[in-house]
Design goal:
BXL, glycosidase, Rossmann fold, XYL2 arabinofuranosidase, hydrolase
Amino acid sequence: MLGHHYTHSFLETAVASVNAGCNLELSYGMRNNVFMRIPQALAMGNITLQMLRDRVRPLFYTRMRLGEFDPPAMNPYSSLDLSVVQSPEHRNLSLEAAVKSFVLLKNVRGTLPLRARDLSGQHLAVVGPFADNPRVLFGDYAPVPEPQYIYTPRRGLEMLGANVSFTAGCSEPRCQRYSRAELVRVVGTADVVLVCLGTGVDVETEAKDRSDLSLPGHQLELLQDAVQ
């Protein structure tokens, strides 16, 4: 609110927030955060003790339900590790969720889905800055990924048993430097071409907005060349 000039100080922001029903501040890394002004607001009578208790109660209720105050031995989740989180059952469920989350805008002549039995002898080309770069596949506020569990488009396609060729065209999503000759070489002899484009947190994330929805850098040119 202060940054948008709705309020003029941290104290005023704290008062307005608490009165509006806000009970949690995202202040990671901020030593001097807004809600540190709550005791001052309480002393000045800008908020009441009862209101403060009402705001705090659901926070502690949630933390208690999560078991934060229980001894570790009573918390069944404290013993979980990657052998459980990355178990075959969990990975299969993640795969099912990924498959069901795709939005297919246009499926000309039933091109998709690609089936391994239909790709024998086929030459696939997978191109673009998102084709084989695990780092750019995760959005903002994502956990730190374990590379061994990440299946990029290239890695997934190679599991189908087809002949797969790859080039990024440009090494990162901003796509400032584009190798057209390499892309043309790779897609020129392919039966199926998959182009993997996008933005990623290098281009847009919290506090990093874009002025338009165009593909970054030379990505549109890369797509046009692949289609041509």
